Amino acid sequence: MKKNEIKTLPQIIEWASEKFPDNEAFIFNKQSLSYNELFLQSAKVAQFLMRLGVKKGDRIGIYLYRSLEVIPTIFGVLRSGAAYVPLDPFAPLERTKACILDCDIKFIMTNQREFTQIEQLLYSNDLSLEVIIGGQSPDDKVISWEEVYKLEPYLVESVEISEDDLSYILYTSGSTGTPKGITHTHKSGLSFARIASNAFELTSDDKIGNFSPLHFDPSAFGYFSGPLAGATTLIIPEPHLKLPASLSDLPEREKPTVLWAIPYIYNEPY
Q: What is the pTM of this model?
C-alpha cells in the first residue's frame, strides 16, 4: 500500500507495518510494540469482535487507563468496522452509564483492574451490555484477554470500510449540561492526522510525547499522526500527569522530539 492510498484509519497501521515493521510504534513504561506486532495484535482483536457479532457501525466502549493495551484495542475496533467510544475510568460511574446509554454500547473493552469498577453495569437492567472483554469472572458475559490473543491473526476477515463510515465518538465534558457525543468519520480523523503530521513535519525518526487521554480530541495526534509518519509515540504514564513536576526529567530520559500538551504542563521547569 502507498501512503497516498490510505483512506481509513486502520490502513495507517497496515501501511506502517509494511514500511516500518520493526520500528517501535508505541512505548509505555519501558514496554513497546513494533508496527508489525501492532498490526498482528489488532487483527486478533478485530477477529474476536467479529466472531462476537460486532458489525460495521457498532459502538464499542474502551474503558482503559493509559496502557499499551489501548493501542491494539483502538485499531482492532476500527479494523472490525466498528467505532470506538472512550469511556473515562476517572469519571463518575453515572457519567459512564449515560454515555453507554446515549450511543447504545453493547461491548466494552477493559482489563481486570478497570473491570472491577464497572462490573455492576453489566447487570444493570436499563443497559443492554452484552459482553465485557478484559475481566476475569465466572460468567459467560465476561471474556479474558487471553481468549482474544489465542486467535490466529491471519484469519481476520476483510471488512469494507469507507472514509465516510463512523470511526470514533468523543464526549464533551458536560460542564454546561449533559455530555454530548461528537462523531468522527474515518475521513475527519485521517484529515486531522495528516494536518498535524504535516504541521510538525513528522518523520520515522521522531518520538512523540502523548499527553492527552483517549477521550480528549488531541489524543488522535499520537494515536494516528505518529503512525502516519512511522514515528514512535511515547504514552506518558498517568502519575506524571497528576504531578507535572515529575515530568522534569522526561526530556532527558526519553528524548522525545515532539511534545504537544496543554499549557499547564509547560509551567513546570524542565
A: 0.92
Quote the CA–CA distance of 45 and 47 in Å, as a whole number.
5
| Contact present, 267 and 247 (Cβ < 8 Å) | no
CB distance 238 to 29 below 8 Å: no
Measured CA to CA in angstroms, residue 133 lies from 77, 85, 142, 149 at distances of 12, 14, 6, 12
Q: Which three cell numbers stand for residue 30?
A: 519501558
Separation between Cα atoms, residue 119 and residue 47, nearest integer Å: 24
Q: Which cell numbers hold the place of 236? A: 506518558
Length of the chain: 270
Cβ count within 10 A of residue 157 = 11
Q: What pairing do the DSSP bridges indicate for beta strands 232-235 and 207-210?
A: parallel
- Cα(91)–Cα(63) distance, rounded to whole angstroms? 11
Q: Is 139 helix (H, G, I), strand (E, B) or coil?
A: coil
The grid cell for 24 is 517501535
Bridge partners, 168 (sequence order): 84, 184
In tens digits, the chain (270 residues) has pLDDT values of 889 999 999 999 999 999 999 999 999 988 999 999 999 999 999 999 999 999 999 999 999 998 999 999 999 999 999 999 999 999 999 999 999 999 999 999 999 889 989 988 988 888 888 998 998 877 888 999 999 988 887 666 678 999 999 999 999 876 666 788 999 999 999 999 999 999 999 999 999 988 787 888 878 888 999 999 999 999 988 766 666 666 667 767 778 898 877 665 555 544
The label of the residue with cell 465466572 reads 138
